[in-house]
Amino acid sequence: MPATPGATTTRAEASPNGGATAGAEPGGAGASSSAGSEPSSEAQGGAGDCPAGTAGEPPEDYLAELNSGARLEVRYFSAPGMPPVFAEVFDTELGVVCDFVLASDGERRCLPRSTAFSQHVGYAEAGCTQAVWQGSPACDGETAYVRRPLGCREQNEVRVLVPYAGPIYLGNPANCALSDDAPGPSSYTFGEAVAPATFAAGMLEELPGVCEATLRVVVSDDGARLPYEVIDIATGTACDRWVDGCRPKHRAHEEPNLFSDATCDTPVESRYGAWEDAPTCAPPEFIRPMVDTGTWYRPGTMPPSDLFSSLGGCHPALDDVWIGSLYELGEPVPLTALAPLETVLLGDLRLQVGATAEQAKPLLAAPLPNFELHDTELDRPCFLRQMADGSVLCIPGAPGSSSNEFNDPECTVPLRSCPDADCVGAVLYDQPVPADVCSSEPPVTGIWRVTAKATAHYRMSPGVPCYADGESTSQLWTVEAVDSSHLASASLQTAPGEDSP
């Protein structure tokens, strides 16, 4: 596999002691094959003014920290002039794309992405808690998975889809009623949880850093290796992408309007941050204040008793769906004290990819599903998507509503949904649930450019002629097909194994 040439363009002053080695072959120079372990606070290393981190020489190219294992294929995007960009992990034993997250047993495992659904049909019982979804007919007879979050934001369980043909209930647990609707073909409920040991396990490994920042990678039990997140070495804080400096990723937000009494007459004296997870889960790493002056806070103690919120009437604060627990704002930390990260653009031909870097040395190019590239020919951001024919294009648009809606009584002028006030010229693409593939990543089947606001509303269904369907809405627009031949292309490649020559 030939190396890909590349160049680095930065949005900040380049440092003389750093630089991208864009184009290194994944799994080549700089890739380590050591066994992985969870990051340790006892890591040693660092030199000069750099904080202590993992001992050893930093990789020549952090972006080359990609290699496949005996079971897991690590895939990356390749395009002329652009360095390899991590794309996904494919579990060859289960035949699914998966992501390393915490499983129900507390281990980090590569859990399958949820199978795509076209719509929520209703519920399978009178309590309106067991959802029924409509998916692809190709999932009938296949082992199809859905990933569901547990009480903690990073912990998930996996369930299998079970075909459903029973009665449909509509509403919510407080107001649930039997419907006259039938579930329709290819309807499913969620079956029993799959044993977590079914899925490949891995550990986090912290690489030697540039100076104040470094990359964590996942090393799986079968030898696969892939990027995970950039961290600030001194605090161990994970950093968000696409911003200069380290913006803590695992953050709560200050919650206003909190009171100590059930009538919301006595405001609390302390300031608290709301965290989505339950008190039994790991706390946030930081709390972002209501007025962001560049100083955030470490989480302090939880309130000694229940607090109440006045938003929407006085009620227990923990009843709000966005609050799983509350933490007092603790030690203030200026964000300037964290790693001085920057965003760089990598690539010297048509496509450039954004990466998080320190001292102009790239640490991580943003992974799927929604990372943004820059098309220098169109001078616009674009998103890599797989087409129905298997090719990969960088589309300068957003998902539309793949629909059977039209603007004329012959059903020849298609409509698509766009929420903006003026969508003329916007590019939309379709990702309908395929009828012949049981997939978690529906391919793109059409690319459209918005031409004008809709003036009528017709529909056409299988076996049903074109018919009028009421007034058009403000979000419906007429569109025309886009010639995709002018769009930038890429390819999806598989990284070699660690023992490959």
Please, could you describe this protein's structure?
- By secondary structure, this protein is mostly beta strands.
- Among the domains are: 96-198, no CATH class; 251-337, no CATH class; 372-491, no CATH class.
- Helices cover 0% and strands 40% of the residues.
- It contains no helices and 39 strands.
- The protein has strands at residues 8-10, 72-79, 82-91, 96-102, 108-112, 119-123, 131-134, 145-149, 156-163, 169-172, 175-178, 187-193, 202-206, 213-220, 225-232, 237-239, 251-254, 258-259, 272-275, 286-288, 295-299, 308-309, 315-316, 325-334, 342-346, 351-358, 361-365, 373-375, 380-386, 392-395, 398-399, 405-406, 415-417, 427-430, 446-453, 458-461, 464-468, 476-481, 489-494.
- Strands 1, 2, 3, 4, 5, 25, 26, 27, 28, 29, 30 and 39 form a twelve-stranded antiparallel beta sheet that branches.
- A hairpin with a 5-residue loop joins strand 22 and strand 23.
- It is globular.
- Mean pLDDT is 86; it is low at 1-46.
